Amino acid sequence: MCRQLSSYNGSHLEKNFLYKCIGMTLGACSSKELVQKQLQELLETAKYQEEAEREGLASCFGICSMNHLEETLAKLEDFVRSDVFKKSVGLFSIFKDRSDTEVEKIKSTLILCYGHVAVAAPRDLILPRIEPDILRNIFQYFHTKVLGMKVETKVQSE
């Protein structure tokens, strides 16, 4: 199903449905390693500039988290900590640089994924994870831009 995603360009409703099917399939999968591998592949290959893709990816993560909360949160955290947001420096990095708009879309998609996970995961499992895993990652790694100004959220230390 993951290989079929690219053939649904232009068919937003169908693509969103396919993401939900992938989430259901991954949720039913017994292999935690396969779930993590597929979630990583989805994060790496998503077209973040497409709204349907962002919504579908978030739905997939939410549905998958119903049965694989640990794996889903771990993959999101790994992706957040990866070099996807870092500007590369050097002669050959011109082709790898992401525009600020693309980076903001990736960030908003990941926040949307965390939101879908928080809503869909079993309540008894997600409640203890909201502050230490979800909110901490959102506050620590994500800054938003408002009318061209960068707004940073300060994390209070106790």
Describe the protein:
It is built from seven helices and two strands. It is mainly alpha-helical. It has one domain (2-84, 94-151).
Features of this protein?
mainly alpha, single chain, 4% strand, 158 residues
Write the layout of secondary structure elements.
Layout: H1 12-28, H2 32-45, H3 51-65, H4 69-81, H5 100-120, H6 123-126, H7 130-141, E1 144-146, E2 149-151
Antiparallel strand pairs: 1-2
Helix pairs in contact: 1-3, 2-4, 3-4, 3-5, 4-5, 4-7
Radius of gyration over all CA atoms, rounded: 16 Å
Number of domains: 1
Helical fraction: 55-70%
Element order, helices and strands? HHHHHHHEE
First-residue to last-residue Cα separation: 46 Å
Strand order of the largest sheet: 1-2
Quick structural gist:
By secondary structure, the chain is mainly α.
